[in-house]
Write a structure and sequence with these properties.
The protein is α+β, with helices and mostly antiparallel strands and 164 residues long. The protein has 2 domains: 88 residues, no CATH class; 59 residues, no CATH class. A hairpin with a 4-residue loop joins strand 5 and strand 6. Bound molecules: zinc ion.
């Protein structure tokens, strides 16, 4: 698929992350801020956009906790090879959507919902997470999807519409 595909693999990352608030342990949201203090929103980004990122801004949804974390400087370089998927997130803290089984985690509620749909064989082709999930979702999560889905629902889904 050429360069576009390679860039997608190496530079794609998620524009917001749900974390556990370090103060109240409820859900916090981390978003990306650019050098011009704009909200970063594209899911896929180019090397140029990568250099434009300034910091993560974390804000709790339930308490006054806020924190800015500079985007890791070592990732500002044009990486010659693949960046680890975890790299831009490694300084953020604990992801909110985690299950104590097969180290399951999701970046945010949208990602979690997409993974659930994928495991249920009903993820839409145009879902923004479809490529990443169909290409990289862990094999042990797929092989144990019945138990995994049960645990995810038990922890995060109290009715058909929310993830709490
Ligand atoms: Zn909080």
């Amino acid at each position: 698929m050429g360069l576009t595909h390679i860039r997608y693999n190496h530079y794609n990352y998620i524009s917001f992350v749900h974390l556990i608030c370090p103060r109240c342990f409820k859900r916090a949201k981390a978003i990306l801020i650019t050098q011009t203090n704009d909200l970063y929103t594209p899911l896929i980004f180019s090397e140029f956009q990568y250099l434009e990122l300034k910091n993560w801004k974390i804000a709790c949804e339930s308490c006054p906790f806020v924190k800015n974390i500079p985007f890791p400087k070592e990732f500002d370089k044009r990486a010659p090879g693949a960046l680890p998927y975890s790299a831009p997130y490694s300084t953020l803290g604990s992801f909110f959507y985690k299950v104590e089984y097969l180290d399951f985690w999701a970046y945010n509620s949208d990602h979690l919902e997409a993974i659930i749909k994928y495991l249920e064989n009903c993820l839409e082709q145009n879902n923004p997470y479809a490529f990443v999930i169909s290409s990289y979702l862990r094999g042990d999560w797929k092989r144990n999807k019945k138990k995994l889905l049960t645990l995810i629902r038990k922890k995060f889904i109290t009715n058909s519409k929310t993830f709490f």
